[in-house]
Amino acid sequence: MYGHVLETSGFLSNDMAALTMKGEEQNTTTDHGTSSKKRKLTMISGSSYIPMEKLGTLQGDDAHFICAEKKTVGVADGVGGWSKHGIDAGEYARQLMSNAECAVVNGDPESKVDPTKVLDAAYSKTKVKGSSTACILTLDQDEGLTTVNMGDSGFLVIRKGGDVYKSAIQQYSFNYPYQLQDNDRSRTPSGAQVTTLPVEAGDVIVAGTDGLFDNLYPRQIEELVRTMIEGGSDPQDVAWAVAGQAYCASMDREAFTPFTEGSLEAGKSSVGGKEDDITVIVSCIVDDGL
Predict the structure, then answer these.
(1) From CA 211, how far away is CA 208, in angstroms rounded?
(2) Does residue 13 lie within any of the structural domains?
């Protein structure tokens, strides 16, 4: 397993401040007509990556990044079919996410992060052979959570009050997702889905590749996340646990999974979980208390 650690102390510990992603202040009006400042929102993220064991590579086909300073995260899944042509299927995804992170870090410090522009910039600079799904999310104090998603990677927003939002899957047919590919006009960021959602302190965002969402239903992810957050676990620990549960399901020959259900609906036979690379990023939205 591989993890990306941004916060390893308790979920609501006092020493988080140095590692949080801070939003901008926003003025609001009270019932008495006076102006007051809305507290900043903070997003704390942790990740886990479990590459599928296969001959010739230890890196797998997934890639991801977390940019704490710009409160932005991203995941990508290289299309495995390229390996049949002697091409590292994960290299496109890795370069895509590396270029996306560079676009975020090197962007105008006075401007908000636009996930669509980030994906456009990353796509234009990724020239290796291959193709990949992609999902990039950013937290903005004024607009909420803004996302761009291409393919069957995606995210959940788990609201403290009980609601759960699941991003839509983009696919041509079962197990054939939309994907980005260099020199293919039909596979550009213009086909990506852009979403803006309100978020508030207490919300938890779970982003991942299809290795997560093919093996666990949203309700299973939600139950595990809520249990761990309520128990005081930090995002890093939650990400490891969610990825671990997805891995167990992927190796269970008797499990009934979303992939099993999709296969049956497509008229194909499938038993058990789907072995795949599994990437999970868990981001907790909290009030920084200032």
Answers:
(1) 8
(2) no
Give a yes or no: residue 172 inside a domain.
yes
What pLDDT does residue 59 have? 87
> Is pLDDT of 290 > 70?
no
* Higher-confidence position of 86 and 1: 86
Q: Cβ atoms within 10 A of the Cβ of 104, count?
A: 25
Instruction: Report how far apart, in Å, the C-alpha atoms of 88 and of each of 74, 79, 81, 97 are.
Output: 20, 10, 10, 15
Residues whose CB falls within 8 Å of the CB of residue 121, separated by 6 or more in sequence, listed in order: 99, 100, 103
Closest to 71 measured CA to CA, from 41, 108, 98? 41
For the chain, the domain total comes to 1
Confidence (pLDDT) at 24: 34
In angstroms, the CA 176 to CA 239 distance is 26
Domain-embedded: residue 12: no
Phi/psi zone of residue 173: left (φ > 0), alpha (ψ -120 to 50 degrees), beta?
A: beta
Q: What range does the domain containing 86 cover?
A: 2-7+18-28+36-287
Torsion of the alpha carbons at 86, 89, 94 and 95, rounded to the nearest 10? 60
More confident residue, 244 or 53: 244
Higher pLDDT: 37 or 237? It is 237
- pLDDT (tens digit, 9 = 90+) per residue, 195-240? 999 999 999 999 999 999 999 999 999 999 999 999 999 999 999 9
Distances, alpha carbon 274 to alpha carbons 24, 210, 235, 249, 270, in Å: 41, 10, 25, 8, 9
In a domain, 49, yes or no: yes
Q: Looking at residue 52, which CATH number applies to its domain?
A: 3.60.40.10
User: Which residue type does 84 have?
Assistant: K
